[in-house]
Recover the amino acids of this structure.
């Protein structure tokens, strides 16, 4: 892939936008040129920027290959996989935090901070450093042309907070983000599958640190993501770790001076494991070789591909479980999948290719370099967004349902999970109490029936509702998820036009494991949740009935006989008592008894209304 002429590009620089794959392990830029996408790499260099950062004692942080190389000599000052911390809180990343060689804290507003050599950095600031390096490498590849517009890819499972953090990182890097798109969607574009008239595609993306699978549907050249699944803690790194752990045990047994306590030893082993793993993708046997002359350790052993496959098989099966879930969620069967696309460096492993082929029952596409497809696809999208001609409409999906807490604690889901984005939904709400002039909204994400079991995205208050009887105010709430997955909620009172909005801020994010956990919980607790929801709804209904009965009694008590009044009072007391407990049959019985007891009151009230209406008409006629 070639160098791009400065003259050509200078004229066109204004119209250019680059595609950036901001990866956990490596990052890369690409550009649409002469009718096809190309990877951006300066002459004599490759374009990959290892997503590693080294913090020297003096001077600014070093990013990329130089940083990764420093990990061997000074692992205590090198950070890998910062992407895992994007848009998340400290409690979300306990496992990852344990791998980081320096202290991690949290700012007052819940943003992670790495403390390195007396300075604090957020994940956004550190990702910005990686983006700057990719941008710089890309611009050098273009002969020094400055292009700041870009499309950046993120894993399909990134939630709003994580996408927001990625946007913030780009802003800090001085980039102008045209759009954030999902990695599997970009990959399917790179394979030009949009040219198909019709079909279903599975994109299997196993990178260094994350796994994503997407089921896409193509109709008349338009992509729609039917379902996604994945695991942000599954990738080639885990295979390296499995091999390194195996080697560490063997070394501890065999080598006289095994420096097992030395932190450099872990890094040396990890890099040796990765080298061995990669060699075993093209050879049946490879040498695992570690050398730390300063400690006197020189150790080598031969590893067979078969042995590596035995160590990695459980990890690959985990990925295939996600594939099954995505296919089920997409409401397709394996037979309906027409194409399978492989993405990510770890899909070079013969075991991965074999198992994916066996699972989907068809040979996957492997024509493009699996490390480049995402960046290439991002550059196609960037080209399209700059007005280029390639009729592609991209749609992604919301990983979890989005909704509002209603009175009583239930959830009204406005946007269902796996809805294609951009999308929007509007629903009408009203007041619960007489003369209520404000409503508090609690925006939640998740599949459970009660708000307390879902994840809070934000809270806001709509003020300025005119004082009206309960249930008379009309408030329209609109959820809008834009093409980048950002959620804007707007509540509007219809008579006064009072408006309140909230945009979900990139605060504490959510890992895909948590998404998986939330989905599993929703499935396992479906029955329990339905009962809890019914209790919540009945409680709300009883509240409204009690309120209406009290008002009715004040108006028509004199018209009722003593027995009926006592019946109603007893039913009201029973309803109030049942409302305080979580016993579904009891609350259901209390509601039914209450309804029966208040029938005579309802009849008297209906009568009074009819009489008033008749009198009103007579008055009018006079
Ligand atoms: P990515 O995140 O897509 O850049 O993928 C990086 C992962 O792919 C790392 O775990 C690499 O070790 C792995 N990888 C790269 N080349 C090979 C190869 N030839 N065989 C097996 N794994 C590879």
């Amino acid at each position: 892939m070639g160098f791009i002429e400065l003259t050509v590009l200078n004229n066109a620089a204004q119209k250019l936008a680059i595609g950036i794959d901001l990866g956990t392990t490596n990052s890369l830029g690409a550009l649409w040129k002469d009718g096809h996408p190309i990877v951006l790499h300066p002459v004599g260099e490759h374009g990959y920027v290892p997503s590693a950062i080294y913090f020297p004692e003096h001077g600014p942080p070093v990013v990329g290959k130089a940083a990764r190389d420093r990990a061997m000599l000074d692992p205590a000052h090198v950070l890998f996989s910062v992407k895992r911390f994007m848009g998340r809180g400290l409690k979300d990343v306990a496992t990852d935090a344990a791998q980081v060689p320096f202290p991690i804290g949290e700012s007052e507003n819940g943003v992670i901070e790495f403390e390195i050599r007396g300075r604090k950095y957020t994940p956004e600031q550190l990702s910005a450093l990686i983006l700057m390096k990719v941008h710089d490498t890309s611009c050098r590849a273009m002969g020094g042309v400055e292009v700041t517009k870009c499309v950046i890819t993120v894993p399909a499972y990134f939630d709003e907070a994580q996408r927001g953090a990625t946007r913030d990182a780009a802003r800090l890097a001085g980039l102008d983000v045209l759009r954030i798109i999902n990695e599997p969607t970009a990959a399917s574009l790179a394979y030009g599958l949009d040219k198909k008239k019709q079909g279903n595609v599975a994109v299997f993306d196993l990178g260094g640190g994350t796994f994503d699978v997407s089921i896409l549907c193509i109709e008349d050249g338009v992509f729609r993501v039917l379902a996604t699944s994945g695991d942000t803690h599954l990738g080639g790194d885990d295979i390296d770790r499995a091999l390194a752990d195996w080697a560490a045990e063997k070394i501890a047994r065999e080598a006289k001076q095994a420096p097992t306590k030395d932190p450099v030893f872990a890094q040396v082993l990890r890099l040796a494991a990765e080298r061995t793993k990669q060699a075993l993708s093209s050879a049946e046997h490879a040498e695992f070789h570690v050398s730390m002359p300063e400690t006197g350790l020189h150790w080598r052993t031969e590893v067979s591909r078969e042995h590596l496959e035995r160590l990695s098989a459980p990890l690959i099966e985990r990925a295939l479980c996600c594939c099954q879930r995505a296919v089920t969620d997409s409401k397709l069967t394996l037979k309906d999948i027409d194409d399978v696309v492989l993405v990510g460096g770890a899909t070079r492993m013969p075991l991965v290719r074999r198992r994916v082929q066996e699972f989907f029952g068809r040979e996957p596409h492997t024509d493009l370099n699996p490390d480049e497809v995402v960046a290439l696809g991002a550059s196609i999208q960037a080209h399209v967004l700059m007005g280029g001609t390639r009729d592609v409409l991209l749609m992604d999906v919301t990983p979890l349902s989005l909704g509002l807490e209603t009175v009583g604690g239930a959830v009204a889901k406005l946007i269902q999970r796996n809805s294609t984005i951009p999308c929007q939904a509007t629903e009408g709400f009203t007041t619960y109490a007489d003369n209520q002039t404000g409503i508090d909204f609690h925006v939640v994400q998740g599949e459970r029936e009660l708000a307390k079991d879902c994840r809070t995205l934000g809270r806001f208050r709509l003020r300025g509702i005119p004082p009206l009887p309960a249930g008379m105010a009309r408030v329209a709430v609109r959820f809008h998820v834009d093409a980048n997955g950002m959620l804007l909620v707007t509540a509007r009172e219809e008579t006064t036009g009072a408006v309140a909005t909230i945009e979900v801020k990139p605060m504490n994010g959510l890992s895909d494991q948590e998404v998986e956990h939330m989905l599993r919980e929703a499935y396992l607790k479906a029955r329990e949740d339905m009962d809890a929801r019914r209790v919540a709804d009945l409680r709300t209904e009883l509240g409204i009935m009690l309120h209406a009965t009290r008002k009715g009694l004040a108006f028509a008590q004199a018209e009722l006989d003593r027995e009926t009044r006592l019946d109603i009072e007893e039913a009201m007391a029973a309803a109030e008592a049942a409302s305080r407990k979580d016993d579904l049959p009891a609350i259901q019985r209390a509601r039914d008894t209450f309804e029966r007891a208040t029938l005579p009151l309802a009849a008297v009230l209906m009568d009074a209304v009819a009489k008033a209406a008749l009198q009103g008409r007579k008055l009018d006629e006079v």
